[in-house]
Amino acid sequence: MFSNLANLIRYRGLIQSLVARELKARYRGSALGFLWSFINPLLLLSIYSFVFAVVIPGLHTNDIEPYALFMFCGILPWTWFSSSLLESSGSLIAGGNLIKKVLFPAEILPITSVLANMVHFFLGLPILIAFLIYFRRWPDPLDLLWFPVVVVVQLVFTTALALIFSALMVHFRDLRDILSNLLTLWFFATPIIYSMREAPGLGKRVLDLNPMTHLIVSYQEILFFPGAIGHWKWLLALGAASILLFLAGYWVFDRLRDSFAESV
Fold this sequence. Notes:
Blueprint: H1 2-7, H2 12-26, H3 36-55, H4 67-89, H5 91-94, H6 96-99, H7 108-134, H8 141-144, H9 147-169, H10 175-188, H11 201-208, H12 211-223, H13 232-263
Helix pairs in contact: 2-7, 3-4, 3-7, 4-7, 4-9, 4-10, 4-12, 7-9, 9-12, 9-13, 12-13
């Protein structure tokens, strides 16, 4: 397992090429092209803002105003996470012609999906910055030092799950529908459209069991609540757990590797 894991460094050029190919293929033939990377998060934000600020207002407290900005701090990383899992789960099946080649490392396919969606996450950051400027919310410069840490933790955590789901999906095709519904539940069980501070005692303990809670809250503390980095212990603990989960996920992937070519 560790020898295959070490070989990933040798394939970094291939990974970069596949990520670039996936980004180009996603919007090939569309009139707006890469502009959809900016439009999609704006549309998603507009929908949720309309529902929770116009249709059913009054469900949030004043400390998370402006609500659109608060919600965007959580929706942007959540979109990276959910899209990565949905796309990577079927990546081995979609790339069956590649993994049937003897020398092709199959784990590159789910990793490519995660990295491609990470690029879209970074492309959405200028919109978030524009919102911060418009609403005159200035993050603390010291808080921003934690931003790369949160991104790396999310990258490791998401990649770990992507390896597990992609390997299992080859043998259990129903897992994609299960995953889609699970992500819907997971979204509402994560403090994105509401604040962690609004959760009652029992609710807060339940939210603490959700790994994405600590990522989303960390983004909110860095970008929306300046000088409020109180979640760093949870974040570092999740980072350590994500490394262990990645090794476990890669072990599962490696054990099932030989069965991929016959099953896709």
